[in-house]
Amino acid sequence: MSMIAGGSTGPSIGEVGEFALIDEIVKTGHRGDDSRTVIGPGDDGAVLAPRGNIVAATDAMVEGIHFRRDWSEPADIGRKLVAVNVADLEAMGATPLGLMISLSAPTDLPLAWVTAFREGVLTECASAGIDLIGGDTSASTVLTLVGSTIGDLEGREPLTRSGAVVGQRIAVRGRLGWAAAGLRALSRGFRSPRVVVEAQRCPEVPYGAGREAAAAGATSLIDVSDGLLADLGHVATASGVSMALSTDAIEVADPLQAVASATGGNPIQLILTGGEDHALAGTFDTVPAGWLELGVVTEVGDQGPQVLVDGEIPEWDTGHDHFRN
Fold it and tell me: 3-state DSSP call for residue 176?
């Protein structure tokens, strides 16, 4: 028998076996009124009925890299897995259709942990408007969660990183710096401010904002997963432009200011370089309501595509790089 946080006991996944584990994960799935899942979990593959071109994306979460079980409840981790995956569909302007999950875990992982994880997955699936349509399981020495998503463009053109045009406005929808502030707090043994700790445990993705951007005439869009400066750098490179940001429009929320003050950091740096919030950043001729305008697309200079902040190259690291950091 195994014990999980809170003192609950029960069998491990090694004790119940693979097929009982699979049944536990997929026995309930979200099916909204607009579901286009024809065949869901239980067969060799799922069947969907799209209305346009398909977008496919995948994201992995590895224990110790993307989450820690002593920091997050299983449901938080389940919600986060859905959120980070669906954010990629949003960044392409697609309507979420189906999510598949692969779980690789040590055999002593409690089945109760998987049950709670599944509940988090289903909760976030309902928020994101996506169906859980299947997945896979495997034994592993490290708990690893992989999500794969399918979205439907429904006749729309995909929003890519290569469409930014000189003179357009740069705008963001969603929170920036909150997850990074939560990581900084947790790394120092704090559990507050609670709102930023919760943001690190599970991002608040602006579901529906990708289609909103497409309707507003966005020409490029990206999921801010590694930090705004780093991700806008990808757009600048792909589009052959530079980007000039202004910090005048940025309002520092009290929780970010509190974390920065307590840890000796710069709240603007948290906002511009912190990853894992999964906001959306795009370029528009006219910025739609609800989006925060932060700058303008400019011509590329002699030094190639770059992102400037208040007219200067930032002095800090621009964002997260798994293999450099």
Answer: coil
Residue ranges in the chain modelled with pLDDT below 70: 1-9, 17-34, 39-44, 46, 317-325
- Specify the amino acid at residue 178: W
The residue whose two tokens read 């607009």 is: 34
User: What span, in angstroms and rounded, lies between the C-alpha atoms of 171 and 279?
Assistant: 11
Q: Give backbone dihedrals phi and psi of 244, rounded to 5 degrees, phi first.
A: -115, 115
Q: From the DSSP assignment, how many helices (H) and strands (E) are in the chain?
A: 10, 14
Q: What is the pLDDT of residue 17?
A: 66
CB 154 within 8 A of CB 112: no
d(CA 319, CA 325) in angstroms, rounded, equals: 9
pTM here is 0.87
Query: Whose structure tokens read 């520092």?
Result: 252
Of 289, 176, 282, the closest CA to residue 225 belongs to 176
Is the omega angle on the peptide bond into residue 203 within 30 degrees of 0, that is, cis? Answer: no
Q: What is the full DSSP assignment across 100-129?
A: EEEEEE-TTSBHHHHHHHHHHHHHHHHHHT
| Strand, helix or coil for residue 196 | helix
**Identity of the residue numbered 88:** D
Domains defined along the chain, listed by start:
10-152 (3.30.1330.10), 169-309 (3.90.650.10)
* pLDDT for 6: 38
pLDDT tens digits, one per residue of 132-179: 998 889 999 999 999 999 999 999 999 999 999 999 999 999 999 999
**Residues in contact with 325: Cβ distance below 8 Å, sequence separation at least 6, in sequence order:** 317
Q: What is d(CA 231, CA 278) in angstroms, rounded to the nearest whole number?
A: 11
